Amino acid sequence: MSEHEQLLNCPAPAKLNLFLHVIGRRADGYHLLQSAFQLITLGDTIDFYRNDDGRIHRSHTLADVPEDQDLVVRAAALLQAHCNCNYGVRVHLHKRLPTGAGLGGGSSDAATTLLALNRLWNCGLSRSELMQLGLGLGADVPFFIFGQNAFVEGIGERMQALATPSKWFILIWPDVHVPTPRIFSAQELTRDTKPVRITDFPDAHNASNANNLEWKNDLQAVACAWYPQIQTAIHWLGQFGEARMTGSGSCVFCAFDDENSANEVLKQVPNTWSAWKTQALEQHPLLKWSDEE
User: What is the CATH number for 244?
Assistant: First the structure.
């Protein structure tokens, strides 16, 4: 196959929530959020092989995820229908990110699929059009198409580009899959955190500072109460800095100023947990494929 018929090793980076506040709830039940989303180098990769028969199918398997529910397949089908495209595709997802971890893995996979197939199928959609299409797949999908670290509001659909410092992170996954709907439906969830402004955000650096308790994850207390393994991981990682949960869990992270410091902590992580060293990204690697700056 030529480069016009396939796109290989397309990155689908994870994200961290440097903070996550729940500031209210809409009449339709959706929660109003404020957060800072940080792209990181850790992520999945996807291979795309174009075909002319219009079929969309996958050559990978995901535990407990039927093909028609796979976000990669759904994203491809959505774009194909939206553009009335005659091409099809075989996709192969190289999954590295755990599910139910708060890293946005499924949403990032869907976003990369839309970005890659927009190019491979010559659909010609703009970034804003892809973001609107992606919202139908999940609230975090538009962020990954936006492609920049962002101050996010609403139900996740409103975002402003945010400059964040160059950091290294240690991530720990305590082998727990947290169902996001369960967390948001908890009666004990705080839903009235005082709104903040992007200008209040202390250059993102202090979001990982133990002395800056204003910037927290409102979902963390509920998740830790239900899954004590998360609290155990936070307590252990908290020896080395401000550790917190990302998203609705279950991954926890801690920021470091340099790679050597992160390496030293990584060596000490108990082997009962999965752990990674990763670095902050300034922007999504596929942002260059967008027609909008």
Answer: 3.30.230.10
What's the domain count of the chain?
Answer: 1
DSSP state for residue 280 in the 8-state scheme: B
Strand partners of residue 252: 172, 245
Task: Say if CB 89 and CB 56 are below 8 A apart.
Answer: yes
Judge if pTM exceeds 0.85.
Answer: yes
| Full residue range of the structural domain in which residue 93 is found | 1-293
DSSP 92: E
258 φ/ψ sector (left φ>0, alpha ψ -120 to 50, else beta): beta
User: Active-site residues: which are they?
Assistant: 15, 140
Residuewise pLDDT in 10s, the chain (293 residues): 555 799 999 999 999 999 999 999 888 888 899 999 999 999 999 999 999 999 999 999 998 889 999 999 999 999 999 999 999 999 999 999 998 899 999 999 999 999 999 999 999 999 999 999 999 999 899 999 999 999 999 888 899 999 999 999 999 999 998 988 888 988 899 899 999 888 877 654 454 443 444 789 999 999 999 999 999 999 999 999 999 999 998 999 999 999 999 999 999 999 999 999 999 999 999 998 865 44
